[in-house]
Amino acid sequence: MALLNQEQIKEIIPHRDPFLLIDEIIEMEPGVRVVATKHLKEDEFWFKGHFPEKPVQPGVLTIEMLAQAGAVCMLCLPENKGKIGYLAGIDKAKFRGMAFPGDTLRLEVEIIKVRGSIGIGSAVATLNDKRIVTAEIKFALSE
To answer: Which alpha helices (DSSP H) does 2-93 contain, by range?
Structure first.
């Protein structure tokens, strides 16, 4: 069951169609940890060109999904209300598996460091309990 649906997510982060890439938040401890999901539909815009004969989820878009989930986690804190979270860096990214139309990704981000307006999250995307993307994502919060 969703803790936040897509309409509630839109109240926290500024992303909109076609670039709001998370469907729901299912677990969250604000400023500490978040779990979101993305249901990969066959008509997602990127599948038309990646790849027409065998659609596969682009790893870089999975990183963006993780970043959006992490942004929700940080921007729901009262002191960050109204700010925007910008992706400031990606470290230790590993692409360990593939996802396809019809799959549901579980997107987990644990905030491991915050100093002022800059932070780092440990991010993991799983499919059927198998890690398919891992990374450390750096973010910057701004007005």
So the answer is: 6-10, 59-75
End-to-end Cα separation, the chain, in angstroms: 32
- pTM as predicted: 0.97
The two tokens of residue 62 are 């999975």
pLDDT along the chain (143 residues), means of 10: 94 96 98 98 97 96 98 97 97 98 98 97 98 98 94
> Residue 120's beta-bridge partner residues?
113, 138
Pairing of strands 33-39, 130-142: unpaired
Residue of 10, 50, 96, 131 marked catalytic = 50
Q: How far apart are CA 119 and CA 109, in angstroms?
A: 12
Our answer to whether residue 15 is catalytic in this structure is: no
